[in-house]
Design brief:
With 478 residues, this protein is mostly helical. It has 17 helices and no strands.
Length: 478
């Protein structure tokens, strides 16, 4: 239990200290935000800070910090270290930087920002990659809540019926102005989400469960190596590229740059708290990682969530916790499709004030999502997880170039360059080793992944050196 308490404390200190440090480097000011400058009543809508925070939290906190944390807990308490330090040094920085850079470019998507700071080729790659990721995300966040809802309702309301109901809701949430459904329902769901996490934490404390102390030992019963598999398995609790598609949504709605740390950095830290609770709940409820792994294999993630919630909290508390778990993915799935709509609108220059233009994109988009729900969930999750971390890698390099170009102090871009280098190694090594990738042995994949990451870091240092040299020559001439 001490390890869990210390993890919460480090997250809080990380937000108060490192979060403030990162925020100061980007120098928030009093400029007019896109919420006012481009207000259109659909996507650009001024939103109060507390509401923007809750919407951002619900946008990013899908089943990732719950399902991913449970699967990550199979590696043992080493997962606590990744969740805590991954969030403080990587995930929260990633979300904050993309949100603030987007806000300074009229709420542009991560794909458009890639074109500005990386290249036109990368912009098109990111457009395609982002839409595919968002389709996978939206699909994952249809099937998982549908499976849970089917457990709570009569037999006639099976998973297929709930998939249709959720997709119908997604149509409305994708089409309607952000303040009509998302802005009104998300604060309520946010309260449910927080109560759910508090309930599971209370169940651990007052139920007499034991949480193992932090260690570096790999306890995965299937023998999966911590590097790189744990760093991909736990994405949405530590760092997730999906968030780079979500931060621009709220960048269109914040009323001041000075609330960026609270909204973007703070929401990611809050999501990490949720991930910690579920990782701890998994190992505490099942006792050993082997039992947790067997339960996940036999009952699936939804079944494990049901067992933990009902076992720790009883019928009433279990239903409350499950409702929170259902709200999480649904409130990320709808904004996934909404983000995809906006990226496609940027690509085809379709004005989104007009309902007709929104329909042109939304209907085929959700049609594709419906088709993808027929695929195996576990396969979808694995590709979603890898594409998640790859997008995070690209987003962090994008933020690094932004920091280099706008820096006020030498090497401030290290705050994004270091996690970008780390995620470069993770992403390439994983796809080289994974069964859904190339299936290469660790002896070959490890050196390739690390070398690839180091080459990126060397390229970053050369860019920094060139900028410093150019600045010096300009000073000498003047």
């Amino acid at each position: 239990m001490i390890s869990l308490v210390c993890s919460f404390a480090v997250l809080l200190v990380g937000y108060l200290v490192y979060g403030r440090f990162v925020s100061k480097l980007i120098e928030p000011d009093d400029r007019v935000t896109p919420a006012y400058a481009k207000e259109d009543g659909v996507d650009f809508v001024p939103m109060k800070t507390w509401k923007a925070f809750l919407v951002q939290l619900l946008n990013i906190a899908g089943t990732g910090p719950i399902f991913g944390a449970l699967m990550g807990a199979c590696f043992g308490p080493v997962v606590f270290l990744w969740i805590v330090f991954g969030a403080i040094l990587g995930g929260a920085v990633h979300d904050f930087m993309i949100g603030m850079i987007s806000e300074r470019h009229d709420g542009a998507s991560v794909a458009e920002l890639s074109g500005i700071y990386l290249s036109k080729i990368v912009k098109w790659i990111m457009r395609i990659f982002s839409v595919l990721l968002l389709l996978l995300t939206g699909t994952v966040f249809v099937t998982s809540p549908a499976a849970l809802l089917a457990m709570l309702t009569p037999g006639a309301m099976d998973t297929t019926v709930w998939i249709i109901v959720i997709l119908a809701y997604y149509v409305l949430a994708t089409l309607l102005p952000i303040d009509k459904i998302i802005g009104r329902l998300y604060p309520v769901f946010g309260v449910v989400l927080i109560l759910m996490a508090a309930g599971i934490l209370g169940g651990i404390i007052f139920g007499g469960y034991s949480v193992p102390e932090i260690s570096f030992e790999n306890l995965h019963p299937d023998g999966l190596p911590v590097w790189p598999f744990m760093f991909v398995t736990v994405a949405c609790g530590a760092i997730s590229g999906f968030h780079a598609t979500q931060s621009p949504l709220i960048a269109k709605c914040i009323t001041s740059e000075k609330v960026g740390r609270k909204v973007f950095y703070g929401a990611m830290i809050s999501e990490s708290v949720i991930a910690l609770v579920w990782a701890a709940g998994g190992v505490a409820f099942y006792g050993v990682t082997g039992e947790l792994f067997n339960a996940l294999s036999e009952h699936g993630q939804s079944g494990v969530v049901y067992d933990i919630s009902h076992g720790m909290l009883g019928t009433v508390g279990g239903i409350l916790a499950i409702v929170g778990v259902i709200a999480c993915p649904i409130t990320s799935g709808d904004t996934a499709f909404r983000s995809a709509r906006l990226i496609l609108a940027e690509m085809f220059h379709l004005d989104q004030k007009k309902l007709k233009n929104r329909l042109i994109i939304t209907v085929p988009l959700l049609g594709l999502g419906a088709l993808l729900t027929q695929l195996d969930f576990n396969v979808l999750w694995r590709y979603f997880s890898w594409s998640n971390q790859t997008l995070a890698m690209i987003a962090l390099w994008l933020a690094t170039v932004y920091m280099i170009r706008t820096r006020k102090h030498k090497l401030t871009s290290l705050i994004t360059a270091l996690p970008a280098t780390f995620m470069t190694a993770v992403s390439l090594t994983y796809i080289l080793m994974a069964n859904e990738g190339f299936g290469i042995s660790a002896d070959i994949a490890y050196p390739i992944g690390i070398t690839f990451a180091l080459l990126h870091f060397i390229g970053y240092m050369l860019m920094e050196h060139k900028l410093e040299k150019d600045a010096k020559e300009q000073f000498d001439v003047s």
